[in-house]
Amino acid sequence: MAETQASPTFRRAVFSDLPAIVAMLADDELGAKREDTRLPLNEGYVRAFEAISQDPNQFLAVAEIEGKVVGCLQISFIPGLSRIGLWRGQIESVRVSRNCRGGGIGRKMIVWAIEQCRARNCGAVQLTTDKSRLDAHRFYKSLGFVDSHEGMKLTL
After folding, report:
1. 98 by DSSP, 3-state: which?
2. Is the C-alpha dihedral spanning 107, 129, 88, 11 positive or negative?
3. CB contact at 8 A, 45 and 18
4. Taking the CA atoms of the chain, what radius of gyration do you get in angstroms?
5. CA 133/CA 96 separation, integer angstroms
6. Each residue of 37-69: pLDDT tens digit?
């Protein structure tokens, strides 16, 4: 889908979007190893969606074109004591459907997410991306993100 065909609209995800979101999360080399697209959806997705939906500091968003979900991301609004009580917007789970990649939707999604963070008075926006996603690194740098910190995870 070319960027010139239509611009996406953004909205809060609803439960009926969940299969499309999970499918996008699974639609790459890394996601295929860790996601489960079988229907009915794994109860873990349902519980997570319910928790996200009930938390005012979480925003699970979808990008839509002509009624079809073509992208998703999650913003977590995080209060902090450091930097004089600075709020941060954490952007995660950014995906664009395979047939729409390369058309500018991802860029519009991130610009939109940054604006949501500004509207919530966040003083910083941060994200993580797997070290193997070199194209994603270039993409985020082109939007002004700087790889200023080393991220670490511990799988439990």
Report:
1. helix
2. positive
3. yes
4. 16
5. 14
6. 999 999 999 999 999 999 999 999 999 999 999
Structure tokens at 39: 């229907």
Q: State how far the Cα of 32 lies from the Cα of 52, in Å rounded to an integer.
A: 23
Where helices occur in the chain by DSSP H, the ranges are 18-26, 29-34, 43-54, 82-85, 105-119, 134-142
Question: Quick one: tokens of 65?
Answer: 């074109």
Tokens 């839509």 belong to residue: 64
Report the predicted TM-score, pTM, of the whole model to 2 decimal places.
0.92
Cα separation, 72 vs 109, in Å, equals 8
* Helices and strands (H, E) in the chain, number of each type: 6, 5
Q: For 116-130, b where at least 16 C-beta lie within 10 A, e where not — what string?
A: bbeeeebeebbbebe
| 3-state secondary structure at position 60 | strand
- Among residues 72, 130, 70, 74, which one has the least CA distance to residue 98? 70
Location of structure tokens 């500004």: 118
Do 71 and 60 contact (CB within 8 A), yes or no? no
